[in-house]
Specification:
266 residues; alpha/beta; binds glutamic acid; 9 helices; single chain; 2 domains; D-Maltodextrin-Binding Protein, domain 2
Length: 266
């Protein structure tokens, strides 16, 4: 009897170990199918990639691409606000299934999450008041330069100009306010946002110098979920193939794409 009990307990322990070792974690595609919609983290403060328009709608280049991807995959979309700081943790925690949020993909960021192929090619620039005398990042020694927490921009700027004083903000509107009020001398982040702000400012702001880093954007997906990553990658490539990418690009940037995302042969 005692032997039987030992045998029974050993079999149970073996079964429990087997279950805990099996890859029971459902992938993002299954999770989305179960939920009925794809939850996508987008920016609300980074025109023209993700922002709130005059009608209160969340719109932009990232949002149009996401809507196309969802349609291709047959999913509904729920947009959720992320910031430069929250987008990676929110993906890791499962709060969002995809981060389409002006995010540069780089090796360090690829440790906790994975990335799609590059879908936009930017570089870091400087936005300043139009009376600013500086000609490039070199002229910002001893100056106060705003950057956003969680963005590549602050560390990049300090690498280029270690004598600058980088002042961090949570979101872009706060940094813009500080620049307008003269609390900082400039804001540093990707060129497209800087150029858009300069244009919208009616002569109050300008872009200083040329872009001085490479910032290729990738959408963030959860680590080790290649089925979902493939699906999103192929949808981005389909957008290039059927002309949607160029159309959406022209809508938000006012010109033809200078560089297209890579397309893998079928
Ligand atoms: N592309 C840069 C980054 O991923 C800056 C833009 C942003 O804050 O999202 O950090």
């Amino acid at each position: 009897m005692k032997r039987l009990k030992v045998l029974f307990l050993s079999v149970m322990a073996f079964l429990i170990a087997l279950v805990s070792l099996s890859p029971a974690k459902a992938g993002t595609l299954e999770k989305i199918k179960r939920k009925g919609y794809m939850t996508v983290g987008v920016k609300y403060d980074f025109k023209p990639f993700g922002f709130v328009n005059e009608k209160g709608e969340v719109v932009g280049f990232d949002i149009d691409l996401v809507r196309y991807i969802a349609k291709k995959l047959g999913f509904k979309v729920k947009l959720v606000q992320v910031t430069s700081k929250t987008r990676i943790p929110m993906l890791e925690n499962g709060n969002i299934d995809l981060a389409a949020a002006s995010m540069t993909h780089k090796r360090k960021r690829d440790l906790p999450i994975d990335f799609t192929i590059s879908y936009y090619f930017d570089g870091q620039a400087i936005l300043a008041r139009s009376d600013c005398k500086a000609k490039s990042y070199k002229d910002f020694a001893g100056k106060r330069v705003a950057a956003i927490q969680g963005a590549t921009s602050g560390p990049n700027f300090l690498k280029a100009q270690p004598n600058a004083k980088v002042v961090y903000f949570q979101e872009y509107p706060q940094a813009l306010m500080a620049l307008m009020k003269g609390k900082v001398d400039a804001i540093t982040t990707d060129y497209t946002w800087c150029a858009t702000q300069a244009k919208d400012s009616h002569g109050k702001l300008k872009v200083v110098g040329e872009p001085f880093t490479s910032e290729p954007y990738g959408m963030g997906v959860r680590e080790n979920d290649s089925d979902f990553r493939d699906a999103v990658n192929f949808a981005i490539q389909d957008a290039v193939l059927d002309g949607t990418y160029a159309k959406v690009y022209k809508k938000w940037f006012g010109k033809e794409p200078t560089k297209l995302p890579e397309v893998w042969p079928k």
